[in-house]
Amino acid sequence: YSVLRKSASRGRKWFRDELARQLMSAMPLYSPSDTCVHLTPIGIALMLDNVAAVRESALNLVTELVKHVSVEISLLRGLLAELAEQFAHSARWNRRQTFALLCSKLIYCRALVDDMFARDVLPHLLDLSWDPVPNVRLAVARTVNSDIMNNQYFCNEQNPHHEVLMQALRRLQNDKDRDVRYFAVYKTIRSEEEEVDGRMKFSST
């Protein structure tokens, strides 16, 4: 981790960005337990980076980490709890925002089975719908409206989580912030390139 600290102090964002990409390629070489021990701390450190491009690469890395660890339920639940503690419950608003963005990735890339997302991730995300910072609520609104409610499991009215999601979405649609209201009403459309990239990642794991 000293290498990460040195690269951060020297402003070498290209190194940290490339590190995230290389770790994604190397992940199949690690067992789920080794992934948690050796790769997860690096992934979390990169998600805390000051550079937005590095954080974006780190989100992709951690999404793949979750997929890779998902075969071991006990390890997976520990990882999800750590991510919630580090980000969803952080005193820093940009980390809480990062958690909402991670939730979007987890849903879009199908990194988790739906019921586990509902049990171990969704409650933390919905708590952030009350966040005092508009940028956090905006990320939550976009994730719920454009990703979660496009998921067949969650958009089913018979689903026990459907009503609480709709309550949060209706509240965000009436938010005092204009941008939050916008993303709670209008679904964002991913580019065809993003859709193809998402399918390739899913099929390769």
TrEMBL record:
- Gene3D superfamilies in alphabetical order: Leucine-rich Repeat Variant
Q: Drop me one GO molecular function for this one.
A: protein phosphatase regulator activity
> Record's superkingdom?
Eukaryota
Alphabetically sorted, this entry's keywords are:
Repeat
Keyword Repeat assigned to the entry: answer is yes
GO cellular component terms, semicolon-separated:
cytoplasm
Q: Which PANTHER family match?
A: SERINE/THREONINE-PROTEIN PHOSPHATASE PP2A 65 KDA REGULATORY SUBUNIT, SERINE_THREONINE-PROTEIN PHOSPHATASE 4 REGULATORY SUBUNIT 1
Question: By what name is this protein known?
Answer: Condensin complex subunit 1 C-terminal domain-containing protein
